[in-house]
Amino acid sequence: MKSLVALYRSPTYSPEVHRRNDTAILDDTVAGLEQRGWHVSRAGEGEVAAGRLPAAELYVNMCQGPAASERLRDLVPREALAVNPPESVLNCHRHRLVGHMTAAGLPFPRTLIVPTAEPQAVVPLVHQLNGDGRPVWVKRGDVHAETSADVVSAKEASVTDAIAGFARRGVTRVALQAHVAGPIVKFYAVADGRFFSWYAADPGRVEICEQSLKDLVFAAARAVGLEVFGGDVAFPKPDAPVLIDLNDWPSFAPVRAAAAAAIAAYIDEKATNGKLA
Fold this sequence. Notes:
36% helix; Rossmann fold; Dna Ligase, domain 1; D-amino Acid Aminotransferase, Chain A, domain 1; 3 domains
């Protein structure tokens, strides 16, 4: 019988309401794979970080932290398949994502990765980054978020206080990101395009070019190697999207049933037929 291990995200990386939703999308995806004849085992991110990984042909991976992802690169057998691959998850950590988006030539906000140890030292950089007076986004520099305090908006004069707050919580680096004007849309997708969905972050109708959105987000996923992904895009102009965030395997909460069915079918086809995105 075909065997897979479902790797569940640590609650550390599923803050607040996301915890239940992150578990639900993996549960539903795995249920779809069970219906396709896969025998399922389950493990948590903490077990992976500790070096414990059951043997299987397939790993359905929602681990997000650096410890588990680094271990997973060594633990997954060469002949096995992992979706998402651990390398792609690590590529989404902010201190790496900036470089990947720049190298791919994709629209992305001006972003600086800076240490939190000496907040005053970054003052000249902040003015250079956002000299137009608009707020600067201060974001955790590694994983996307552990709490709501990991993404904050700060005026130039208060950026040093914001950085110091991250330092007090033990965060060693932050991303300083220029604000991008325009409506924000959230998106969910599977790499081969069989599933794609988006909605406006704020209530109301937004005018955007959907093809421009798709072109950008699928190119971004290819640049880091993601197969199941989502994120946020700003539209300063309807046909000029700017990627704000790229997330490895989000919750798909508004579209969970359809997304889980599509993800399960994608994974099963890839594992069975060697089909690549």
